[in-house]
Known about the structure:
Number of strands: 8
Oligomer: single chain
Distance between the termini: 58 Å
CATH topology of the largest domain: Translation Initiation Factor IF3
Mean pLDDT: 80
Number of helices: 7
Shape: elongated
Radius of gyration: 29 Å
Amino acid sequence: MAAPAAREQHRINDRIRAREVRLIGPDGDQLGIKTVPEALRMARGLDLDLVEVAPMANPPVCRIMDYGKFRYEEAQKAKESRKKASNVSVKEVKFKPKIGKGDFDVKVRRIDQFIHEGHKVKVTMQFRGREMAHPELGSKILDEVLSVVGEYAKVETQARLEGRNMSMVLAPDRKAIDAKAAAPAPDSTSPEQADATTPQATPAAADEAAAADESVDETAAEAVED
């Protein structure tokens, strides 16, 4: 039940100083205003603790609970939160003002992948030579990136020019990503209809498709490393 006094974050049981409190039961029921001795008797009758959860209220709010279990659960939540925070990193994807559509699409897909994995992404536009005279070209490309991935990302740091680079930082929009994951899958054609309407791939066509996939993968790896 009660944790050692040195580790307490709340006043509990006999350490509560108020004369009366607004009492909440172990199941969250509002039990009204009670004197502290009466509230203590109710808590001890259930073999639980009386815990002051809102000391600044008038009167203070106390809840009947297993304080040891409460502290354990809070510690587990904090541990999980730190674990998630340590797994989040900032990825960087670099662009150039004269980037081709194919490379642009590959890099944007990689940004979208990072966002859905929970990472932040630093999108960097690199200017060279005379390109520095036209920063609006970089801004346009960054706007295009945002228009593609913006449904599941939010701008954490607005685009700004630093030396020869223009960068913005995107962060995952967890609500949008979770809503997408929870959405039902669209209706699909039945297997019988698919068999009747989908042309069967020939061995030659399958080999060509596999070769194309390998080419795209190699292009993606080179593009992100640029």
